[in-house]
Amino acid sequence: MTAHAYLTTREAADYLRLKERKLYDLVRQELVPCTRVTGKLLFPRQALDLWLMNHLEGDQRSREPLAAILAGSQDPLLEWAVRESGSQLATLCHGSGDGVRRLLAGQALVAGVHLLDPDSGRYNDPLALGLGGMRDLVAIRWARRRQGLMLAPGNPLDIAGLADLARPQVVLAHRQPDAGAERLLSLLLARAGMRLEALDLSPNVALSEDDLALAVRRGDADAGLGVEAAARRHGLDFIGLHDECFDLLLRRRSYFEAPLQRLMRFAHDPRCRDWAARAGGYDLGELGEVVYNA
Fold first, then answer.
1. Which of 22, 100, 113, 240 could crosslink 148 through cysteines, CB 3.0-4.6 Å?
2. What is the rounded CA–CA span in Å between residue 213 and residue 234?
3. Where is the Helix-turn-helix domain positioned along the sequence (predicted)?
């Protein structure tokens, strides 16, 4: 028989070898992961497993707490959910590579990352990111997102795909070298027999999805690679090119901090899925799944 992904209160109490009253106390103190659906408490089995492993590692309270900072790549849905959930996470989104560095240095509670390894074709591989030494690293799937070309409203230059970026009059907005979008752009261009350095690049580097979209909207550039949701909210045309994985990387103990628990509970609220559907370019079928557990 296939194990259910979500447990009822009675099932969770049996699973954890706790009395239901004790489990309710832990929920009230926001110490155990759970979600509420139509007034009923449900407990994600994967999250309970993480909770158990965390307690087997000993008393985590003795460790120095990390600042409640979400670093890494900007994602429109995640940005909105951080605010709406009341998570009290501060955002410092300067690209996936920056997020990985801050997580490794203990300067962030969580990092949003979408880095494709060109050799393996895998997204957010801890070994490829230099995070293999983090023995308590966890990756939580946030979403699958559609990446593509952001274009000026009405697509006045009739850009139909990557090949058109090589035309002399086309100026391309671009991101910092270790941003996930820039790594993907270089890979897509290479597959098309093109090189990023040979294109007419805008003079200023866009540090986020919004910065890139605004550069196209203002006319500082004619095109740029970004997510569909950012293109739509800035009123830009969009040509989809690639579907990617966007994950949250964090230390296991961080998953049980109140800011992360508030965010992940809200992620299963119907409002979150409604927002994603209106924004466009999101697949939330795996949201909340543990895709890596060191």
1. 240
2. 7
3. 6-54
- Per-residue pLDDT reduced to its tens digit, 16-49: 888 888 888 888 877 777 777 777 888 877 777 7
Closest CA to 128 of 74, 165, 178, 201: 178
Q: 251: number of CA atoms within 13 Å, CB side?
A: 24
Give DSSP secondary structure letters for 203-244: SS-B-SHHHHHHHHHHTS-SEEEEEHHHHHHTT-EEEEEEEE
| Residue pLDDT, tens place only, 123-151 | 999 988 988 888 889 999 999 999 999 99
Neighbour tally for 45: CB within 10 Å: 16
Q: Within a 10 A sphere around the Cβ of 25, how many other Cβ atoms?
A: 13
> Please, what sign has the CA dihedral across residues 260, 262, 263, 267?
positive
The encoded tokens of residue 77 equal: 């849905």
- Token duo for residue 154: 């009405």
What is the rounded distance in angstroms from the CA atom of residue 166 to the CA atom of residue 163?
6
